[in-house]
Amino acid sequence: MTTPVPSLSPPSAPGRPDLRRDRPRWPALVLIGAGLALVPWLFVLAFGLPATAVAAHWSTAWAGFDGLEALGLVSTGVLLRRRDPRGCLVAAATAPLPVVDAWFDVVTATPGGDRTTAVAMAIFPELPLAITCAVLAIRTFPRRDPASIHPHSA
User: Fold this and answer.
1) CA 146 to CA 10: how far, in whole Å?
2) Is residue 97 within 8 Å of residue 130, measured between CB atoms?
3) Pair 150, 11: CB distance under 8 Å
4) pLDDT tens by residue, the chain, 154 residues
5) DSSP code of 84?
6) Per-residue pLDDT tens over the stretch 47-85
7) CA atoms within 13 A on the CB side of 81
8) Which of 41, 118, 137, 148 fits 105 for a cystine, CB–CB 3.0-4.6 Å?
9) Tell me, what's the pLDDT at 16?
10) Which region, left, alpha or beta, applies to residue 145 given φ > 0 means left and ψ of -120 to 50 means alpha?
C-alpha cells in the first residue's frame, strides 16, 4: 500500500480551479532552454572576442544606462514614499542595475586611478543601493492574509 505524497503548494479554495496547474508550461521551458543555450555562448565570448575594442557612442551608452538607473531609483523612492504596492516591482527591477553598473565600471577601467575609483564607487554607493533595492523589493512585497486565501481552513 502506498501513501500519497502531499502537495507542496497550498490547496485551492473549494469551487475554484487551481490556476497554477492550468498555466502553460512552455514559458518556463523556453526560459530554461534560453539560459542553457547561453552556456556555450559564454565560451565563444570569453575566448573569441578581442581583448580591446573601440565603441562608437560609448558616452551615450553610459549616460543612457545611468539615466535608466536614476529613473529606477527615483521611481522606487516615490512609489515607496506613497506606499504604493507597485514599489516592490520597481525596486526588484532596479536592484540589478547598480550591480551591472559596478561590474562594467570595474572591468572596463584602466589600471591605476580609474580602477581605484571604479572599485570605490562599486563598494559605495552602487552595491549598497542594489542591496537596498533588493531588500525593499522583498520586504514591501504585498502579503495575503492566509485566511483570505483559504477561508474554510480556519
Assistant:
1) 10
2) yes
3) yes
4) 555 544 445 555 555 556 566 788 999 999 999 999 999 999 999 999 999 999 999 999 999 999 999 999 999 999 999 999 999 999 999 999 999 999 999 999 999 999 999 999 999 999 999 999 999 999 999 988 776 666 565 5
5) -
6) 999 999 999 999 999 999 999 999 999 999 999 999 999
7) 6
8) 118
9) 58
10) beta
What lies within 8 Å, CB to CB, of 73 at 6+ separation is: 94, 129, 133
Residue 127 has φ and ψ, to the nearest 5°, of -65, -40
- Collapse the DSSP code of 151 into the 3-class scheme (helix H, G, I; strand E, B; otherwise coil) and give the result: coil
Contacts 24+ apart (CB under 8 A), 122-130: 125/98, 126/98, 126/99, 126/101, 126/102, 127/98, 127/99, 127/102, 129/73, 129/98, 130/95, 130/96, 130/97, 130/98, 130/99, 130/102
Identity of the residue numbered 114: D
Q: What's the grid cell of residue 23?
A: 498555466
